[in-house]
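name: query_chain
kind: protein
chains: 1
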Amino acid sequence: MLKALLFDLDGTLADTDPLHLLAWREALAPFGIQVDQAFYHKRISGRLNPDIVRDLLGLEGEEAQSLIRAKEARFRELAQDLRPMPGLLELLEEAQARGLTWGVVTNAPKENAWHVLRALGLNPPLLVLAEEVGRGKPDPLPYRVALKRLGLLPHEALAFEDSPSGVKSAVGAGIPTYALLTGHEGEGLLEAGARGVLQDFRKATELL
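structure:
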């Protein structure tokens, strides 16, 4: 019996990827790295910031953190007029009517996560931050922590993601997962383990 809906944040609750792409483009330009959409999806999307900076620039420690703080501050400047993904609010209303709880499981830094949630007018009963549990997606730990905090078995939850990394994380925790086509091709999302793909949430109530 379904008891909870679990959502990724960026690219799932709202289409924030274009803003992250722009912020990363500005942050990496001084290093001679050009960030187009293909590069963003292959090297950045769905990954933890420290891993991104280490992989692309070989930076760690305070130098890496300084770059990350600047990039995320720029993202928050850009993310002032966010709108929920079409159908999301209706899905949450239907879930509440059916007695389901919901939560957000994200690799986003804490300050960013709350910025986006406040901008969307959302206050999830559960928020699991990868930076606080010790490992990020595609590791299944963030979703396992979500299940533990809710006291649920994997089949009692349904996850929504938008990147192969996120899908692998949720599926790795045993949770049935659907993926939104906000940034990645359906083929890669299905290969990662998604049960199906969605343009947005307007037909998602059919999954409950």
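note: The longest strand covers residues 101-106.
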